[in-house]
Amino acid sequence: MSLDIRVPIGLLFLALGGLLAGFGAVTHFTNPAMYAKSLEVNVNLWWGLVMIAFGAFMFRLGRKGVKPAAPSSDL
């Protein structure tokens, strides 16, 4: 079995990006004063979305790069 390193990296970034984006979405409504230092930009939400996009890209490249071996016709 050949596992491309991009698959687990993609899954890692998808998971961490989901957590970060979820935290940013929740704190956007419950604690908006938290983002006063960043000029009212929800940095957690935006970087979480960037991490999700990167993770999906890496996962897709990893899944696309894995090709099954062709059967040999040696008799």
Characterization of this structure:
The radius of gyration is 19 Å and the shape is rod-shaped. The model has no long low-confidence stretch (mean pLDDT 90). The longest helix is centred in the first third of the chain and has 25 residues, at 6-30. With 75 residues, the protein is mostly helical. Helix 1 runs antiparallel to helix 2. The two termini are 24 Å apart. It has one domain (6-65). Helices cover 64% and strands 0% of the residues. 15% of the residues are buried.
Unreliable stretches covering 5 or more consecutive residues: none
Shape: rod-shaped
Number of domains: 1
Give the DSSP E fraction (strand runs of 2 or more residues).
Answer: under 5%
Transmembrane segments: 7-25, 45-62
Keywords: Membrane, Transmembrane, Transmembrane helix
Q: What is this entry, summarized?
A:
The chain crosses the membrane at residues 7-25, 45-62. Helix content is 64%, strand content 0%.
Structural descriptors:
75 residues; mainly alpha; rod-shaped
List the helices and strands and how they pair.
Layout: H1 6-30, H2 43-65
